[in-house]
Fold this protein.
Amino acid sequence: MNVRVPAKINLCLGVGPVRDDGYHPLATVYQAVDLHDEVRATGRDDDQITVSVHSEMDVRSEISVVPDGDDNIAVKAARLLRERTGISSGVDLSIRKVIPVAGGMAGGSADAAAALVACNEVWGTGLSRPALEVLAAQLGSDVPFLLHGGNAVGGGRGETVSPVLARGSYHWVFAMAHEGLSTRAVFAEFDRLNTGAEVPEPVVPDALLAALRAGDAEALGAALSNDLTEAAFSLRPELEDTLSIGIEAGALGAILSGSGPTALFLASDEAHSLDIAFALSSAAGCADVVQSRGPVPGARVG
Ligand code: ATP
């Protein structure tokens, strides 16, 4: 059973004041993009759950830091599904990683979403998509969206996903950094930079929703926003140069993906996207450049 699952980007990422439980309220618009991990699940005769991780793109994926035991979030997903359905079956999970590790594109969450779908099939547990979404929310903030795919508004700490009216297919260029950035460290830096300041409740900008409704790439480019930018720049000053190079190459918009360090650039068409990719390929802070499209569907068998 093979499940393909996309990466996510945040077209806007509004971050509110830290809550008592340590999480920050988020107001985001997610888009699933054409950069996929694959999770293969093979049933076992015993109750073991194993995982192996592979990649053909070592630089981008840094797969050596991906746990190959119980800490792997795909294993946690399989265990949670087993617990909730009361079965005792085992499974071998094999993950083919393409989504950058610690890149701000929710690669781990994507694998968790894929593992839920794959194990639900292999074990014949028959949970509906809404039932899987409940489990997904317990695994991580981005996991429900990666089941969903397309475009969606994310609230709460990101796990509350609601549909958004959207038109159009967008051309993206992603600049992957040489080294990942910890989401936790970027949020801690956000808190440090905002010490003593009144952080407002986050909102999704109206201009962004209007651009998506109209399918207007130029307006979407102008409306892209990310409240974690300053914090990520503070930890990785060279990211500012990467964004500038894409903007100079004529990108309609440029922001960091989630907590970074992947930078994303919106292009008007395929040729424009190639120009931007070419300009970025010589940037010092850039390990790899990928052209992609979005939106695409969420975790799917196939
Ligand atoms: P997000 O965008 O959701 O904040 P990210 O894309 O920046 O996350 P991930 O690639 O999801 O970061 O991984 C963050 C950490 O989670 C990794 O450094 C790794 O130690 C751990 N991890 C656990 N399981 C996985 C997995 N299946 N794939 C990748 N990382 C995993």
Residues 107-122 form the longest helix (16 residues).
